[in-house]
Amino acid sequence: MMLPKWSCFRVVSLALSAGLISPGFAQSATRPAADIGRDPCRAVLPGAPSPFTEEAAARGISYHIGDPDTGFATLAMGAASFADLDRDGDADIICVGDWNGLVTLYENDGTGHFTPHAAPDVLKATCAIAADYDGDKDNDIFIATWEGPDVLLRNDGGFVFTDVSAQAGITGVFGSGGGCAWADVNGDDLLDLYVANRTGTPYSDGSGNLTPDPNRLFINQGDGTFVDMAPALGLTHGDEPTLLGVFVDFDLDGDPDLYEGNDKGSFCIERSNYLFENVGGTFVDITAASGTESCTDTMGIGIGDFDMNGWPDLYNTHTPNAPGNTLLLNNGDGTFTQDAAAFGVDNLALSWGCLFFDHDNDG
User: Fold this and answer.
1) Does residue 176 sit in helix, strand or coil?
2) Which of 65-79, 115-129, 199-213, 333-347 bottoms out in mean pLDDT, i.e. has the lowest?
3) Mean predicted confidence (pLDDT) in 151-179
4) Does a structural domain hold residue 271?
5) Rg of the chain over CA atoms, in angstroms?
6) Domain count of the chain?
7) Is residue 53 part of a domain?
8) pLDDT over 80 (residue 316)
9) Is residue 41 part of a domain?
10) DSSP track, 234-284
11) What is the CATH number of the domain that holds 216?
C-alpha cells in the first residue's frame, strides 16, 4: 500500500512554556508499509527506569524562572527552544521567562556543552521562537509576552541581537501572548508570524471575566516589516482565550493550516478549539466539519503521525477542568476521530507541553 507523502513547507511552532519546537510535517519520504503494524501505544510506564539523565548543569545550562524568594514560577512560566543561532550547524538554546526579564542564549560548542550569552531583557516572556524572517541566512528571534509588548530580535551575528520590533511593525501588541509560530502562509517564500493571545491587558475586567485580545497573523512584507492581517485572512475568533496555535498541513496539500488551542473550556459553546484550513492564503474555519470541535482547557498541542498511516494527528493536553487529554486521529479525508481513551493517553492529570518523538529510535 502506498502511503501519502508528507508535504514540504517552512513552519515552526512553539507552545507556551512547553519549551519544545514542533516542526510541521517536512519529510518527503514515504513510510514503509511494514511500519503500520507497530504498536503506537508503547510507552515508558510510570515507575519504569528512565532512559534519560539530567545533565543541564554539567553541560553549562542554568536558567531559573521562579521567584528567587519563594521559588514559585511567574504567571508567564517561561519557555525554551532550540535553534542554530550562529550558523555552525548545531542546536543552540533560547531561554526566556526569568523573574527579572533575563533572556539567555546558550551557544552549543558542537559537543553538547553550552556557553551563555545575554540578549535584550524581556519581562514576562511566554514564548521564544527562531526563524530567518529577513532572508539573510541566520535565525532571528520572536518573543511573546504576558501583558507586555512582544519583541522581535534581529540576529546581527556573533550572538548579538537587536530589538527591531518598532521598525518591523510589531507594536501595540499588549495582550497576554501564549504560543507563537512562523510559517509561509501565502506561498510568497516569506515567513509570516502567528501570535496567540489568551487575554488582553489587564488580565480581567475586575469581575472575573477575561478581557479579550485578538490573535495576530503578521504577514511578512519582504522589506523587514509586517502587517497584522488576521481578520482579513479569516482568523475572526478574536475574543477567544487562545493559549497556543500550531501550523500543520493536516490535508497534505502543501500549505500550512492552523490549529488553535483555547483555554477555559467551561465556556466551550463559544470557545472550542478551532481548525482552519488554508485555502490559497485565506483561512476557513472547518472545526465542526472536521470533527475537531472540543470543550477543553488546552495547555499543549503535539503533532505527529501517531498511528503511522502517513497523516498528521493532533494530541492536546488539558487541565483537570477538561474531560481528559484528547488524541485526534487524522482519517485522511478531512476529518478526525477522537480516540485517546482507546490508546490509554486520556490522562486526567494537569498536563502542559507535549510532543511526539521516537524515544527508542525504532522508527
Assistant:
1) strand
2) 199-213
3) 89
4) yes
5) 20
6) 1
7) no
8) yes
9) no
10) T---TTS-EEEEEEE-TT-SSS-EEEEEES-GGGTTT---EEEEEETTEEE
11) 2.130.10
Q: How far is CA 183 from the centre of its chain?
A: 12
Q: Could you tell me which residues come within 8 angstroms of residue 63 by beta carbon, excluding any fewer than 6 positions away?
A: 80, 95, 98, 104
Cβ contacts of residue 170 below 8 Å, gap of 6+? Answer: 142, 150, 151, 152, 193, 218, 226
Residue 211's pLDDT band (boundaries 50, 70, 90)? low
Rounded distance between C-alpha atoms, residue 356 and residue 359, angstroms: 9
Order across the sheet with 92-96: list the strands: 79-83, 92-96, 103-108, 114-119
Residue 314 has pLDDT above 80, yes or no: yes
DSSP state of 204: B
Dihedral angle of Cα 129, 22, 363, 351, to the nearest 10 degrees: 120
Is-contact 5 30, C-beta < 8 A?
A: yes
According to DSSP, residue 2 is labeled P
CA separation for the pair 169, 335 (Å, rounded): 37
Among 88, 94, 93, 95, which Cα is nearest to 110's? 88
Instruction: Please tell me the total number of residues recorded for the chain in this structure.
Output: 363
How far apart (Å, rounded) are the C-alpha atoms in residues 169 and 176? 18
User: What is the residue-wise DSSP string for 311-336?
Assistant: S-EEEEEE-TTSSS-EEEEE-SSS-E
Q: What is the mean pLDDT of residues 116-142?
A: 93
Q: What residues does 82 pair with on adjacent strands?
A: 93
Q: Which residues contact 45 (CB under 8 A, 6 or more apart)?
A: none
**What percentage of the chain has pLDDT greater than the value 70?**
74
* Alpha-carbon span 151 to 204, nearest angstrom: 23
What rounded mean pLDDT belongs to the chain?
Answer: 80
Segments forming the whole domain that contains residue 280: 11-26+63-343
Q: Which three cell numbers stand for residue 362?
A: 525504532
Flag whether 164 is in a domain.
Answer: yes
